Amino acid sequence: TMETSILLLRACLALLAMPIYLLSFLGIWKPFCKKIFFPYFLEKLSVIHNRKTHRQKQELFRNLPEFAGASGELKLLEIGTGCGANFQFYPPGCKVTCTDINPHFQQTLTRNMKKNQHLHYERFLVTAAEDLSQVPSGSVDAVVCTLVLCSVLDVDRALREVLRVLRPGGVFYFLDHVAADHSSWKYFWQQSCFPTWKLVFDGCCLTREIWKNLEQANFSELKLQHISVPLAWTPIKPHIIGYAVK
């Protein structure tokens, strides 16, 4: 049966990744992953991902200036900034607050900030998406979150925080990989890779149906589309992209 095949494939992948499982058991993998492996991996992935989604991202962020506040200033909060892969898509003069749960992206982040001097960088907060308590309620015009909701601990809580920090009429932009259609080979592949992928890539979940969380969140307007990003040999091709208005 399908379940048996999935379990068999999971076992094969676990065998291949045995050294990582062992390091994890000894408590060595997680700190190494957060500090060295994942920042390195994400930097490489961001470059490829940006190349494959460049047109879609340009299109996505095109209407950002329309959400500037009454003063004409655009206050933007990015959740899970990572290496700063989105900076190039933000409009000039935009005031950016960066947040990430992992403080170890500093090198690439600094490089991307230098490359994108058309923005004002306000501050950097080391915090989880589910706890933006350092950001006052209703204080930002836009929130951006790309390739982050796949690995937060609680998607609904993260979305509640997004709604809290946005001013009324503010906008939330998202782009993330999601579960494939349940009857597809892609989904079979996602289920097979799930445990090992999650361990290796710092908690990243392959089978989340994030569009459902977005539909259930209290946004007044939701523009969402399913797209496929051609990332060869990976289980993360199915994506959702769009924006939601508070």
From TrEMBL:
Extract the Pfam families matched here. Methyltransf_11
Q: Identify the domain of life.
A: Eukaryota
Q: Does the keyword Transmembrane helix apply?
A: yes
Q: Where is the Methyltransferase type domain?
A: 77-174
CDD domains linked to this entry: AdoMet_MTases
Chain segments annotated as transmembrane: 7-29
Ribonucleoprotein as UniProt keyword:
no
Coiled-coil blocks = none
Alphabetically, the GO molecular function entries are:
S-adenosylmethionine-dependent methyltransferase activity
Gene3D superfamilies according to UniProt: Vaccinia Virus protein VP39
Check the record and name the SUPFAM superfamilies matching this protein.
S-adenosyl-L-methionine-dependent methyltransferases
Its name, as the record gives it, is MET7A protein
Q: Which gene encodes it?
A: Mettl7a_0
